[in-house]
Each structure stands twice: as structure tokens, then as C-alpha cells.
Amino acid sequence: MYRLNDTLYLKNIINLLKKKIWLIFLLAFIGFLISFGITKLFIKPKYTSTVSFYVSNTEHLQNKIDYNDINAAQKLANTYSVIMKSDNLLSEAISISNLYQLSSDQIRKMMKVTAVSNTEVIELRVTSENPQLSADIANAIAQVAPMKIKDITKTGDVAVIDEAVPNTVPSSPNVRINCMLGILAGTALAFIYIILKDIMDTTIKGEEDIKNYYDVPILGSIPVLDSPSKGGYGKYGY
After folding, report:
1. pLDDT digits (tens, 9 = 90+) for 46-94
2. CA 20 to 30 Å from 99, out of 11, 32, 93, 149?
3. Per-residue pLDDT at 137
4. Crossing angle of helices 175-199 and 9-19, rounded to 10°
């Protein structure tokens, strides 16, 4: 039994954890198995395909505005991102790719458009449970986006850098990270259980506990007569 005000409490806890190392490894392994099982059996894998675009603005060039201004580049990329997610553009992408089983809202939920930091490049990522479907949606949007953006902005220009290809490696879930989280959760649970059980244990286990926590003199002790290790008998009467 160790008290929170014990100056050697940390050392005692370390010794206690060493004694219970088997429990720590057991719960860590159970956490690993649970995380692995849930990830493999209950979470469907998703696949992401990416299209890259180079964006520019002819009005900026004509007015000799410094296009190296990062804020201007990011603002332009964000504007194009909004256009790429519009119902007008997505409806046409559905039409040319025969993806009539999907609505614009469904595709919009699969999309993520981001501006690459400090560049004039934007990336479109499409994620679904089918790698071929992700690539088809991304390429359909890439086919429509350049002309639509130019028609809407009148000054903008977009060029496709890389077309999307089906990605057979799932982008999620991440089995390795989930298993690591399971191991950490099991280990933390073991630590909490061991420490709380020790803190809540108020039993006296020997003379040292009395000396350390009650500061009273010990007049004597009663031996365990039925203990073979003390030279006694296993049972009374024999």
C-alpha cells in the first residue's frame, strides 16, 4: 500500500508496474486485437484519386499585378475551388461521365479541393469505396472544370497537370495507426487499473506499513504458526 504523500511514491509505482508487467502486456495485446478486428471487419476501406490543376489569372497579368503575392494566389485557388463544387459544374460532370446514379450533393461530399501551399496549384481529391469510381469522378470534373471556370470568371484559366488513376491502396482506414491507438489504449487502461487499485488498497501488509504511515512504535508481532515457512504446521492439530 502506497500513499500519495509518500516521497517515494513514484519509485513505488514504478516497482508496482514492473510486478504487473504481465497485465500491461496482456491489456495492450487485447487492445491491439480489438482495434485490428474493428478496422478489418466493421470499417469499409475507402480509396482516393487525385487530380492536379495549374491556375492562373490573365487579368492579373495584364494589370502587371505581382502574381507572386501568396495571398492573391490562395484567394484565386479558393475561388476556383468554390466553382468546382458548384451544382452547375457537377451536373455537367455527371452527364458526360454517365454517373447518373450519383447526385451533385453526393459527389460534393466525396470531394476535397485544396490549394497547394505557396503555389498556383490546386488539388482535387475524390474519395469513395470504389477506386475506379473515385478516378472516374475526378477525371469527369477535370474534363469540365477548365472551360466552366473560364466561362464564369471570364479571366481565369485552368490546366490539368495530372489526371486521376484508380488507387488500389486504401486511403482509410489506417490499420497501423488504429492498431497503435489500440495498444496505447490498452496500456493506459492497465496503468490506470493498477495505480487506482493500489491507491484504494487500505490493508496493512506488514510492519513497514505501520512504521511509514502511522508513526507508532511496534511492541511485537504474532508469527503465523500454521505457515510451513515459519517452522509451523500446515494445519492445527497435526
Report:
1. 999 999 988 776 554 444 444 455 566 667 767 888 888 999 899 999 9
2. 149
3. 94
4. 120
